[in-house]
Design brief:
This protein is of the alpha/beta class and 617 residues long. 35% of the residues lie in helices and 24% in strands. It has 3 domains: 3-246, Glutamine Phosphoribosylpyrophosphate, subunit 1, domain 1 (4-Layer Sandwich); 249-452, Glucose-6-phosphate isomerase like protein, domain 1 (Rossmann fold, 3-Layer(aba) Sandwich); 455-617, Rossmann fold (3-Layer(aba) Sandwich), CATH 3.40.50. An 8-stranded antiparallel sheet has the order 3-2-4-1-10-9-11-15, covered by helices on one side. The protein has a 7-stranded antiparallel sheet with strand order 5-6-7-8-12-13-14. The chain has a 5-stranded parallel sheet with strand order 17-16-18-19-20, with helices on both faces. Strand 16, helix 9 and strand 17 (327-331) form a beta-alpha-beta unit. It is globular, with a radius of gyration of 25 Å. Bound molecules: 5-amino-5-deoxy-1-O-phosphono-D-mannitol (M6R). The site of 5-amino-5-deoxy-1-O-phosphono-D-mannitol has 16 residues, from helix 9 and helix 17.
């Protein structure tokens, strides 16, 4: 939520800021704004709506050349998405200070009352403007920006990344971080700040992740990090492995279309170097976890939100089957509010693409407080979740820009299989040969994903055909159930229509009442080739809904000779063991939702009301 970028150095600052905001726009797109300090002092432009509105505003009212500045793209919390509430906010009567903020200042009301009593004038309804006035006032009193900045951030409660520049100090960007993301990009004679590395990956791969309750004093030739109480910090540098081109559309109609097509690579990269040719999983990352714990685990709890939680549901099937550990999957925001049972032998696995989802961070902090070890499955280097966990399995999906998660999901599912196999190996819960055969099967998935991607046109055609549908239902069993849930989420999120995923076996317990003449139902049909296949049961479910007028679209495995007779349309996926099929079956659903949304004239990359990274609870 909210994208933040800061720059100091010789480049044309406005270009750096707008380029960074373009790459961070997925974090929020209600409004955008920039401030720079140039020959005429502090200049600010801001505009409600998408970044293009700001670009047009700057074209109409050009800004001076500058070598320092800050930029913001907003997902509104306090105050509607208007020009006035857009960031930056100016502070103090002289309006020489400019501030941008991501997060929520929880004690803003009392701080605002204090400022109002002194006669401060507010130009917005935001909580953020309070911080701008406080820092400006403190600077007037102390004459020292770092001191003024530290004094104020120490008074703020809640979650915030704050960046500030001041006309009287045109060589420094101040930044602070509490419970919201902030990374530094290190350049030669220039430095950057961003909500994530996408903000500056075009210019530098050297980065520092700013820790909790830390302040950054950023100049062109120096970076100083201190704690909120003034102690110097020696931060650890890391190398960004994302490619700048991966964060651009590169000729595709949308980021989502590109990211769907990126999936063979995302799955292959997530597997790379982690399974040897015999099928043995080697995940050195997990060595941070105590072996004794792994051997004695009594349960594993997966915490995640949205699509990442469906990846968790799929991991549950694999972990329970191969490692024989009881797994529960919990929505992060529900988890800690119900006094969950956590023993010293509980492992919490947190799944998050961004690694900044506040609900998931709070769930993992809670679990750690209760004594659990936390293993993260995360796509973003330097993210808070990765820093705060005992061990991390990175997914290597590259930057995911479209709000709807696609390649991050298939990479998360892949990481879940790796973890399940590793736990199985360590605990010897299945014969080694069986586990290795599964590992070899997993290695075949990138090629199968490629085939699905090459054959997406029928799914897209159906998306166009159903553009006027008012409701679409999704059914699945076993690992097909989370796939059905994900198909429904994609459609809600992208096409704004009613969509629900059900366990096919649950139909007769209520949902079948929804079926009426012409109701589109997408059914994930399991492979018929396995001894304990659930395919016959799903075919029965299809017959039940067809008898009541449903129009059935089946996602089925090639070679399933029965399914065509029972469905209006079949979207074929390559053969694989059932447990691995979600990686394949989910992709036509992504393409279906994307195309249906596009046919309705909607923006698939930036659906209404959403933001990519949900950094508030
Ligand atoms: O960054 P995270 O993986 O923690 O995000 C979790 C959810 O917010 C995310 O998966 C969301 O549901 C997607 N927009 C779905 O497409």
């Amino acid at each position: 939520m909210c994208g933040i970028v800061g720059y100091v150095g010789p480049k044309a600052t406005l270009d750096v800021l707008l380029g960074g905001l373009r790459r961070l726009e997925y974090r929020g797109y209600d409004s955008a704004g920039v401030s720079v300090i140039g020959a005429h002092g502090l200049e600010t432009r801001k505009k409600a709506g998408k970044l293009d509105n700001l670009v047009a505003e700057i074209a109409a009212h050009p800004m001076s050349e500058s070598h320092i500045g800050i930029g913001h793209t907003r997902w509104a919390t306090h105050g509607a998405p208007t020009d006035g509430n857009a960031h930056p906010h100016l502070g103090g009567p002289t309006q020489k200070l400019s501030l941008i903020h991501n997060g929520i200042i929880e004690n803003f009301a009392e701080l605002k009352a204090e400022l109002l009593a002194e006669g401060a004038k507010f130009a917005s309804e935001t909580d953020s403007e309070v911080a701008a006035h406080l820092i400006a006032r403190e600077y007037e009193a102390t004459g020292d920006l770092p001191t003024a900045f530290a004094n104020v951030v120490n008074r703020l409660h809640g979650a915030f990344t704050i960046l500030v520049i001041h006309e009287d100090q045109p060589d420094v960007v101040m930044a602070a971080r509490r419970n919201a993301p902030l990374v530094i990009g290190l350049g030669e004679g220039e430095n950057f700040l961003g909500s994530d590395v996408a903000a500056f990956v075009e210019f530098t791969k050297r980065a520092i992740s700013v820790g909790q309750d830390q302040i950054v004093i950023l100049r062109a030739d120096s970076v100083e990090v201190r704690t909120f109480d003034g102690h110097p910090v020696t931060p650890e540098e890391f190398t960004v492995d994302w490619d700048a081109s991966a964060a651009s559309k590169g000729g595709w109609s949308s980021f989502m279309a590109k990211e769907i097509a990126d999936q063979p690579q995302a799955v292959a990269d997530t597997l790379m170097g982690r399974i040897d040719s015999d099928g043995l999983v080697r995940l050195t990352e997990v060595e941070g976890l105590d072996l004794g714990l792994v051997m004695n685990l009594d349960r594993l709890i997966i915490v995640a939100c949205g699509t990442a939680a469906y990846a968790g549901d799929i991991a549950k099937y694999a972990i329970e089957k191969w490692a024989r550990i009881p797994v529960s999957v919990e929505l992060s925001h529900e988890f800690r509010y119900r006094d969950p049972i956590i023993t010293p032998n509980t492992l919490v696995v947190a799944i998050s693409q961004s690694g900044e989802t506040m609900d998931t961070l709070m769930a993992t902090r809670y679990a750690k407080e209760k004594g659990a070890k936390v293993l993260a499955i995360c796509n973003t280097q330097g993210a808070t979740l990765a820093r705060e966990s005992d061990a991390v399995i990175y997914t290597h999906a590259g930057p995911e820009v479209a709000v709807a998660s696609t390649k991050a999901l298939t990479a998360q599912i892949t990481a879940g299989y790796l973890l399940a196999l590793l736990l199985g190996q360590m605990r010897q819960s299945l014969p080694a040969a069986e586990l290795m055969a599964l590992g070899q099967e997993l290695l075949k998935m990138p090629a199968r994903v490629t085939r699905v991607i090459e054959e997406l046109e029928p799914a897209k055609e159906l998306g166009r055909e159903f553009a006027n549908a008012k409701s679409v239902l999704f059914l699945g069993r076993n690992v097909g159930f989370p796939v059905a849930m994900e198909g429904a989420l994609k459609l809600k999120e992208l096409a704004y229509i009613h969509a629900e995923g059900f366990a096919a076996g649950e139909l007769k317990h209520g949902p079948i009442a929804l079926i009426e003449e012409g109701q589109p139902v997408i059914v994930i049909v399991p492979s018929p080739r396995e001894a304990d296949s659930l395919q016959p049961k799903v075919i029965s479910n299809i017959q039940e809904i067809r008898a009541r007028g449903a129009k059935v679209i089946a996602i089925a495995e090639e070679g399933d000779t029965q399914v065509e007779a029972y469905s209006e349309h079949v979207l074929w996926i390559p053969q694989s063991q059932s447990i691995f099929s979600p990686i394949l079956a989910v992709i036509p659903l992504q393409a279906f939702a994307m195309e249906l949304s596009t046919a309705k004239g909607l923006d698939v990359d930036q659906p209404r009301n959403l933001a990519k990274s949900v950094t508030v609870e």
